[in-house]
Amino acid sequence: MPPHHRLYRSLPSFHSLFFTRGAKCLLAATTVVLAGCATNPPSTSASSHHLIRDAYLSYTQSDPLGAYLKSQDRQNYGTSTPNASEASRSFASTALGALGIKYRFGGDTPSTGFDCSGLVAYAAEKSLGLKLPRKSSDIARLGKSVDRNELKKGDLVFFNTRGHRFSHVGIYLGDKKFVHAPRAGSVVRIESMDIAYWKKRYNGARRLPAGNTAETRLASK
């Protein structure tokens, strides 16, 4: 056999290289998942947390949970249940009223948009009469701690999405789902806490009191 034929056979084909590299890229992309909203000003340098967040959100851009809720189950989340207080139902329902509103860093009203703590603060003030701190890490000091297996609708759920504890907050809805404002480019939406990303970053939950200023209800764990 001529030498150039032997060389050709010893080299991997173009299609083999293409699909091998493509598979590796796809695997890397699909193993990277979300970071939460920015309750503190974003860093000027790109971090791995931001890359993880962006990759996950682009992967779940269609928001199937939110779409399903809007089309079929919105009233179910807003109705009473025997184990949920009226105040907690109202708190969660107020947040659900913001579904589809665009994320905006520092936003805390439907007209401006919401970030994660802005959504929680808005719903708490409208439904519970509470004036919450503006940062999710400060909100995490309020109320009382709740075990994961004792979560009820209206409890606050916290996650480490930016490299430090309690950097993201949402409102629990029941059935292992919560409503939150994820990040720029997204909207207020519903997610499942059973997603591997959230399981790994879950920090705990708090239950807020109703009818009092939150600043007077600081609690230690």
**Percentage of helical residues?**
25-40%
CATH architectural group: Alpha-Beta Complex
Please list the strands of the largest sheet in the order they lie side by side: 3-8-4-5-6-7
Report the sheet-strand fraction. 5-15%
At the third CATH level, what is the topology name?
A: endopeptidase fold (from Nostoc punctiforme)
- Shape call: globular
Distance between the termini: 77 Å
Structural class: alpha+beta
Could you tell me the mean pLDDT? 74
Helix segment count?
A: 8
Helix and strand element order: HHHHHEEHHEEEEEHE
Low-confidence stretches: 4-36, 67-84, 213-221
Radius of gyration: 22 Å
What keywords describe this structure?
221 residues, alpha+beta, endopeptidase fold (from Nostoc punctiforme), two-stranded antiparallel ribbon, disordered C terminus
Give a structural overview:
With 221 residues, the protein is α+β, with helices and mostly antiparallel strands. The protein has one domain (32-217): endopeptidase fold (from Nostoc punctiforme), CATH 3.90.1720. It contains 8 helices and 8 strands, in the order H-H-H-H-H-E-E-H-H-E-E-E-E-E-H-E. The strands form 2 sheets. A 6-stranded antiparallel beta sheet has the order 3-8-4-5-6-7. Strand 6 and strand 7 (189-192) form a beta hairpin. Helix 5 crosses helix 6. The longest helix has 17 residues, at 14-30. It is globular, with a radius of gyration of 22 Å. The model is unreliable at 4-36, 67-84 and 213-221 (pLDDT under 50).
